[in-house]
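Subject: Sanity check before I submit

Could someone independently write out the structure tokens for this chain? I want to compare against mine line by line before I put it in a report. The sequence has 260 residues.
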Amino acid sequence: MASKGRAWSWDELILICNLYFSIPFGQMHSRNPTVSALAQALGRTPGSIAMKLVNFASLDPAHKARGVSGLSGVSRADREVWEEFRSKWSARVLESEEKLSKLLAPPLKGPGKEFARFPSPRKATTTERSATVQIRTAQNFFRKVVLAAYGSKCCVTGIPIPDLLNASHIMPWSAFPEHRIDPRNGLCLAVHFDRAFDCGLITFSPEMRLVLSPELKGALPNEAIDREFVYREGVSLRLPERFAPSEEFLAYHREKIFLR
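---
Independent answer below. Compare away.
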């Protein structure tokens, strides 16, 4: 039975803050199965979890800029957890995801199943296993947050099927470990656009419009390329609800990865 009148602990607020970044704003209500699952695991009511989610929304600059207001009962602890999470993003992501995985069986449902296995030709050491878990955790969280920010729709095509979407890194995972789980380094792209973006066959202009590489156009005439890419040349990137892509990161992609 859910506890009434119990003070919120730091661990509980960290988990709820994690959930805040992992689901779209429109799904922060007590009927959301993910909200209910966390509430049950914490011995709380779904309504109380939903209220905390909306409290965090009231602290989010992205929602303030859009004129969206949350509840007025934000506590000092809410603010401290929010600032802690935002200032120590990577550490809090790993901490909260680890706590969720231990608390929930199975873990909170969400995209990211492509990272479910990391095969190894030999038995991994403890250090290697720990590193693998951290990588999987970071990748899963990055995908959840990016897809949630874009409403699980490709920012170019609008495709709304999660199994056909990837959370694309603007600045490469391998070269920029400090930005691996920064959602401003992410775009929600359909798998073929994700591949084209990674290969430098497409990019986005400073005005956030789709640009095609001469390398891609060199394959013309081709019906599939014309229909999927040429048809969309110049279209505006659909901006996310929060975590808009960094202009600095996109500039790097245009200058260092895009094939001119």
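---
OP: Matches mine. For the report I'm noting this point. Residues 144-257 form one domain.
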